[in-house]
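Our consortium's second objective concerns turning raw sequence data into structural hypotheses that experimental partners can test. To show how far this objective has progressed, the report includes one record in full. It was chosen at random from the queue rather than selected for favorable results. The single chain below, 64 residues long, was entered without modification.
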Amino acid sequence: MYKREGTSRRLAPCLGVEYLHQNPVRAGIVKNAEDYIYSSARNYAELDTLLEIELLDLPVITVK
């Protein structure tokens, strides 16, 4: 799992999920994470999706 030095246990899963959501954005495939049809970011944005997931109760963060 993705982990940053000094990150709290509660925040670490959130950073990991956000890191995965941002991969298609960093790769230049889409402008926004929720635009990638195969991303669970669509579930968190409450958009139509191809994936069925259990949403985690995570704090909202913005990673740039």
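The partners drew two points from this record. The chain has a mean pLDDT of 75. DSSP finds two helices and no strands in the chain. Both points have been shared with the crystallography group to help prioritize constructs.
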